[in-house]
């Protein structure tokens, strides 16, 4: 073992190991009672009628768009400042992503900017709780309702967060959680759609399972309907093994979030005196479950300065990364759609100066101190031209 501090790390205890091993010994590895229980736990947590477990958050987003019948010729509004999956899912359907710049404080989309992008070809709005911050989600849901457009809530980064007493996952007509190992809880790989809409839930269940009728489950059961593929579907199922891991993690959700809040509080206390570091904005009436701890450097730092600091942290065995480059400026999107620097000025300016610090439940106070010391050391090495 070395003393490296990773960017993130899952929190797995004997409880998780036991439930996964029990599942392996049960003989039932797909579409069984673990998946049903995990779906119930997530749906209940988000205050929704249905949970549909899938093999990734990205698959979940894709199915939401398919279930809404979105395809070529349609436009879907999505944030410029997010993880690439919140735009790729639109391209899978043949529809066109329409990007919206972010609010410089919360880093979520500016609701006014979303309204300006609504056209007569808009078929849905994807809203993302960026870095787990649910700020503005209620306003976005209200805007979507006013235009009779479905809101798909990409809450992959926000499990356990709340805004004005509404949990993340309750704002969209459909909402999607993600369980990659750096999220608040993990299933290894996995995701979950939640919704109150019975018809959309049935469609998602069918689409994740090769287009079979939603009530049919495992091979050997209900043979009559088993090969009855009523629509073009996918295999986006979540296995019993992944679901077991998810159940054990959900039973520890409060503990996991409390630990994340403690680490976030330690970083905040340690860094709030530094005028060159902009800390995450937490609005009133917001309960953060903390996906990552991303700080922003002040305006006198350039993107090159930021990259130098990230490199310096890594050379000192401290994990760091530049969350996120704006999606439209990623090489693939530039080439396909011709986006250029300057098209999304706020997202660009923010993304030049953001850096993610190591963040996970077991990060100790001493490690937080060491990370911050190293960060500040790297910052002092930047020399600024006199003006
Ligand atoms: C993690 C994440 C997803 C889902 O990612 P998967 O790796 O496919 O599970 C989707 N959107 C956002 C914003 C995310 O951060």
Give an account of the 3D structure.
There is one protein chain. This protein is an alpha/beta fold. Helix 3 crosses helix 4 and helix 3 packs across helix 7. It has two domains: 14-250, 3-Layer(aba) Sandwich (Aspartate Aminotransferase, domain 2), CATH 3.40.640; 254-386, Aspartate Aminotransferase, domain 1 (Alpha-Beta Complex), CATH 3.90.1150. The longest helix is centred in the C-terminal third of the chain and has 19 residues, at 253-271. The relative contact order is 0.16. It has 14 helices and 13 strands. It has helices spanning 14-26, 33-45, 57-67, 85-92, 111-117, 137-146, 198-208, 223-226, 240-250, 253-271, 303-315, 331-337, 345-353, 365-380; strands at residues 50-54, 75-79, 96-100, 122-128, 151-154, 162-163, 166-167, 174-178, 191-195, 277-278, 286-287, 293-297, 354-357. The site of pyridoxal-5'-phosphate has 14 residues, from helix 3 and helix 4.
Short description:
By secondary structure, the protein is of the alpha/beta class. The chain has helices spanning 14-26, 33-45, 57-67, 85-92, 111-117, 137-146, 198-208, 223-226, 240-250, 253-271, 303-315, 331-337, 345-353, 365-380; strands at 50-54, 75-79, 96-100, 122-128, 151-154, 162-163, 166-167, 174-178, 191-195, 277-278, 286-287, 293-297, 354-357.
Q: What's the structural blueprint in terms of helices and strands?
A:
Blueprint lengths: L13 H13 L6 H13 L4 E5 L2 H11 L7 E5 L5 H8 L3 E5 L10 H7 L4 E7 L8 H10 L4 E4 L7 E2 L2 E2 L6 E5 L12 E5 L2 H11 L14 H4 L13 H11 L2 H19 L5 E2 L7 E2 L5 E5 L5 H13 L15 H7 L7 H9 E4 L7 H16 L7
Parallel strand pairs: 2-3, 2-4, 4-5, 5-8
Antiparallel strand pairs: 1-9, 6-7, 6-11, 8-9, 10-12, 12-13
Helix pairs in contact: 1-9, 2-9, 3-4, 3-7, 10-14, 11-14
Pyridoxal-5'-phosphate binds next to helix 3 and helix 4.
